[in-house]
């Protein structure tokens, strides 16, 4: 492992500590908002969509740092976008269980269940659970037939977040990906739990694209697909002390499916454990792909237990045999 990778890793650790410290300081001086103050009746499985949205607007509009609290309890939340920019740092504390509607028809296709976007200095913390209730949707997933794998909702989307922290939350039984990271800079995931059965299709734990300075540490992921995947434009990604299994491992890619893809660079995966997975660490590019560039990939101190393919470099990636190749031994 070269000096460059050590510097990247040290910088990522420093950034994580600074983020945590800054949010702790902001929380000490913050104004508190709670969804219970916005018209809730306090019943089990109550729909909190309106109350949550109004409370978000109030917290996001505060010129002082704010804390928005979802207390213990079980709630239902419909498809929603929590939008910035906010006027000051905002910490969202989720202590209860938030459920998605079971029926996929309640969602707009190719969108997330919960989206956080265009926010600077944002933290999502607490020991709460985001339950995608995905079992009904999994049987409707026709990705293997059509190649269209983005119709169902992702549990949580982070779009264009800067200086963010996600800590101690659980994502459960997502209908598609658990967490998607797009266009983000300086975002840390710490002590995140991802849970879905190994036969749940396309339930990637965390997918990263067109983002830089993303840290994932001390997390546990069991999924039906990649625990973590890094797509085009992923830059300076540090993954440490992650336990993955079951699932398909930690992947760079797939890359090269589209023209003029942004390169991938500065990927560090270290001190991670894989158990009962199809793969350990994997790099995958589409066969007959457009130009795909991935540089500065470092994998160190990787432990594997009952893993079919501990290290995979697949330059003829073709899931579900949708390419024009014949007689290939596919891995997916």
Task: Tell me about this structure.
- 14% of the residues lie in helices and 43% in strands.
- The protein has four helices and 25 strands.
- It has a 25-stranded parallel sheet that branches.
- The longest helix is centred in the N-terminal third of the chain and has 26 residues, at 3-28.
- Mean pLDDT is 89; it is low at 325-332.
* SS-derived structural category: mainly beta
Helical segment count? 4
- In total, the number of strands is 25
Uncertain stretches: 325-332
Biggest beta sheet attributes: 25 strands, parallel
Mean pLDDT reading: 89
Overall morphology: globular
What Rg, in angstroms, do the CA atoms define? 20 Å
Strand proportion, as a percent range, falls in 35-45%
Strand-and-helix sequence, N→C?
Answer: HEEHEEEEEEEHHEEEEEEEEEEEEEEEE
Helix content: 10-25%
| C-alpha termini separation | 29 Å
């Amino acid at each position: 492992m070269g000096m460059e990778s050590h510097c990247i890793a040290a910088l990522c650790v420093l950034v994580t500590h600074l983020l945590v410290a800054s949010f702790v300081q902001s929380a000490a001086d913050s104004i508190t908002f709670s969804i219970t103050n916005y018209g809730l009746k306090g019943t089990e499985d109550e729909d909190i969509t309106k109350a949550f949205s109004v409370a978000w607007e109030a917290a996001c509009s505060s010129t002082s740092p704010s804390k928005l609290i979802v207390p213990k309890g079980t709630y239902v939340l419909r498809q929603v976008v929590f939008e910035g920019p906010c006027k000051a740092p905002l910490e969202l504390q989720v202590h209860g269980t938030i459920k998605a509607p079971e029926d996929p028809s309640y969602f707009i296709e190719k969108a997330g269940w919960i989206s956080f976007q265009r926010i600077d200095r944002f933290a999502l913390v607490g020991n709460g659970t985001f339950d995608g209730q995905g079992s009904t949707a999994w049987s409707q997933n026709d990705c293997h037939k059509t190649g269209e794998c983005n119709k169902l909702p992702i549990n949580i989307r982070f779009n264009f977040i800067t200086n963010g922290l996600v800590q101690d939350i659980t994502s459960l039984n997502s209908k598609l990906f658990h967490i998607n990271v797009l266009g983000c800079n300086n975002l840390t995931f710490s002590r995140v739990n991802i849970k879905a059965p190994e036969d749940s299709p396309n339930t990637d734990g965390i997918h990263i694209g067109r983002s830089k300075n993303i840290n994932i540490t001390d997390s546990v992921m069991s999924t039906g697909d990649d625990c973590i995947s890094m797509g085009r434009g992923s830059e300076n990604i540090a993954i440490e002390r992650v336990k993955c299994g079951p699932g398909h491992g930690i992947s760079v890619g797939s890359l090269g499916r589209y023209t003029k893809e942004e390169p991938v660079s500065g990927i560090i995966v270290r001190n991670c454990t894989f158990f009962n997975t199809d793969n350990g660490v994997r790099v995958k590019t589409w066969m007959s792909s457009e130009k795909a560039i991935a540089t500065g990939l470092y994998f160190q101190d990787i432990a594997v237990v009952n893993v079919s393919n501990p290290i995979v470099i697949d330059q003829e990636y073709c899931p579900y045999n949708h390419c024009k190749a014949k007689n290939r031994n596919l891995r997916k």
